[in-house]
Amino acid sequence: MLPTSYRIARVQKTLRRFEDDVVLLNMRVKDLSAERQKSARQFAATLISRTRAELDRLLEEQPEPGSDTGDVPCEPAD
Q: What is the pTM (predicted TM-score) of this model?
């Protein structure tokens, strides 16, 4: 499985692309019927919403810094 930080970066990049594409989407669908324009915009909005939800989920799963098993402090010597 991919590291959480890598997955977060990929989802953030995808979300930025979806959000930046909304303006272009409006240009691409302008020749369609009103019903199809609405459908395309709803689909894009749903996709963005689900991507944000995935990003939120990944951010919640991300381990706290220093909580890796290799960073556990040692027991004091006797």
A: 0.72
